[in-house]
From TrEMBL:
Active site location: H93 (tele-amp-histidine intermediate)
The protein's name in its UniProt record: HIT family protein
High-level lineage: Bacteria, Bacillati, Actinomycetota, Actinomycetes, Mycobacteriales
Domain HIT: 4-107
Short sequence motif named Histidine triad motif, residue ranges: 91-95
Length: 142
């Protein structure tokens, strides 16, 4: 059975995408710890990060760095966190999020009830920041 992330990637489920290329996508999580919390996901379904092809993992990290730079620009956070957990969905994904202190790294504090308008505003900010940084070819149209 396809993972929920594969279903989002294929368009079977909705997603707020900020990045799409042949190997990796990035979209806002439905339960952010802070505005701009984005998941960087390989298109290929791999359950655990230590099993992923090293070149694909490197590409995921490269995209996570670009997304992190955009998150920092858009949300003016002093630090950008990145976590790999994998308990919630068995498909490798990197959490990229703005952080003002270590409490931001607690995924248990994620808010699944974030209003759609807040999520849409974060989407607009991140897409603009990625375009401004020169990554427009990978940013979906508004």
């Amino acid at each position: 059975m396809a993972s929920v992330f594969s279903m989002i990637i294929s368009g079977e489920l909705p997603g707020r995408f900020v990045w799409q290329d042949d190997d990796v996508v990035a979209f806002l999580t439905i339960a952010p710890v802070a505005g701009g919390h984005t998941l960087v996901v390989p298109r290929q379904e791999v359950d655990q990060w230590q099993s992923i092809d090293p070149a694909l993992f490197a590409r995921c990290n490269e995209v996570a760095q670009y997304v992190g730079q955009a998150v920092q620009s858009a949300f003016e956070a002093p630090r950008i966190g990145m976590l790999i957990a994998g308990f919630e969905v068995a498909h490798v994904h990197l959490h990229v999020f703005p952080a003002w202190d270590m409490s931001g790294f607690n995924l248990a504090k994620a808010d699944p009830n974030t209003p759609a308008e807040v999520m849409d505003e974060a989407l607009t900010k991140l897409r603009a920041a990625l375009r401004e940084a020169g990554h427009g070819e990978f940013v979906p149209a508004d």
